[in-house]
Amino acid sequence: MPRNGRDDLMVLVWIMVLIGIMVFLWITYVRADTNPPLVQNWFANLVNHLNGACCGEHDGYPARIERMPSTPRGNYAPEDGYACVTEPAGKEIIVQGIKLKTKPTIKGNLCVYFSWNQLTQEHQGNPMDVAYVFVRVKMDNTIDYVYCVAALPQVY
């Protein structure tokens, strides 16, 4: 059967449709690692009780709070809270399709002590289903410093 221009056009249309589906699936897969705007805004606006910024999503790791810290006595806030990172693996932080930073994987001790002053002030609640610990990770991939801890509301 001889081919005509209409058959070639249909083949081209199907190829374009398949390429479109592949691009859509690729974009969906790449963007699946990003957080929705509400969560990105929450990460960007966290502050602790000393009104210090918690840095951002690239310093935050999901954690389980084992013990909440004591309330401060005067100017003294003991570091007796205890939290353990539950997902130490690093990842790329992507916002609106732009890679901002690669979060390092934590090695070694995954648990940290923290004080009441390092707890975040949750004015609108924690939109995540898990607590977060915001830490500085050294070049050897161990935790160096705790910026702050974002507990789940029911923990308070």
Helix content: 10-25%
- Specify the overall morphology: elongated
SS content category: alpha+beta
- How many individual domains? 2
The radius of gyration over CA amounts to 23 Å
What characterizes the major β-sheet?
5 strands, antiparallel
> What's the N-to-C terminus distance?
77 Å
Unreliable residue stretches: 28-33
Strand order of the largest sheet: 5-2-1-6-7
Helix run count: 2
Average the pLDDT over all residues and give the rounded result: 77
What pattern of helices and strands is seen along the backbone? HHEEEEEEE
- The tally of beta strands, per DSSP, is 7
Q: How much β-strand is present in the residues?
A: 25-35%
Give an overview of the whole structure.
The chain has 156 residues and is α+β, with helices and mostly antiparallel strands. It folds into two domains: 1-32; 37-155, no CATH class. 22% of the residues lie in helices and 28% in strands. The chain contains two helices and seven strands, in the order H-H-E-E-E-E-E-E-E. It has helices at residues 5-31, 37-44; strands at 60-67, 81-85, 91-95, 98-103, 111-114, 131-137, 143-150. The strands form two sheets. It has a five-stranded antiparallel sheet with strand order 5-2-1-6-7, with no helix packed on it. The longest helix is centred in the N-terminal third of the chain and has 27 residues, at 5-31. The model is unreliable at 28-33 (pLDDT under 50).
